[in-house]
Amino acid sequence: MQTMVDVALSGMTRAEAVGQHVRRVIAERDLRPGALIGTKTNIRESVGVAKATMNEAVRLLESQGVVVARPGPGGGLFVAQHDPVVKLGQSLLTVGGAPVSVADAVVVRELLEPRIIVDAAKHRTQDDIAVITTQSAALTDVVDDPNAFVHAVWELHRTFARISPNRILRETYLSMLRFIDAETVRISSVEEEAGHRRYKQGRLRLHQDIAEAVVAGDLSGAADLAREHSLTEE
């Protein structure tokens, strides 16, 4: 991997340099689609970057269709499958050759989200339950950090999406979320007023309630909460 001096001279960010390193590993090891590249922890330690930098690198690589990140036991970074369904989701990010706006992607994501959440409640496994429970509890720890909270919420939604057996639904939704994530450079912090604190706590409770409904396999409750989620901003 390039040194940080090389990175500075090349104009790349550290996350972009990590992404370049991962691409090089894939090429040098001749890894095929679906092959394990390594865990995020192992890769991060091998290149010596912070967790936040590694997470940003993963988001960039996922948005570019290079890797797929899978949480939980047996998880890690895997070479993305370049099959027609994945390409369909990625191709929806351009219409007639024109790029789709973040606002367009948000609308599509919100339309798909209720079905994603209900599918997660219907098809979750014991391994999924363990991951969702951990991610839901972790939201409390980052609720006061706007950037960390939003990205943690998106990671929870990615977990829901990966459970869905409907591949077209799953890949289209994940493509929209990857695009939104990649295009969102930073979430601006809002002054800590009483109203804002109530808003954050409300979003925290809503997402933890959704996670609880999915874990319990409560299809009706999951559907109701998904509709509530679609009526409020992220």
UniProtKB/TrEMBL annotation:
UniProt source species: Streptomyces iranensis
Keywords on record: DNA-binding, Transcription, Transcription regulation
Protein name (database record): Regulatory protein GntR HTH
Domain called HTH gntR-type: residue spans: 12-82
PANTHER family linked to this entry: TRANSCRIPTIONAL REGULATOR, GNTR FAMILY, UXU OPERON TRANSCRIPTIONAL REGULATOR
Molecular functions per Gene Ontology: DNA binding; DNA-binding transcription factor activity
Gene3D superfamilies listed in its UniProt record: GntR ligand-binding domain-like (1.20.120.530), Winged helix-like DNA-binding domain superfamily/Winged helix DNA-binding domain (1.10.10.10)
Pfam families noted in UniProt: FCD (PF07729), GntR (PF00392)
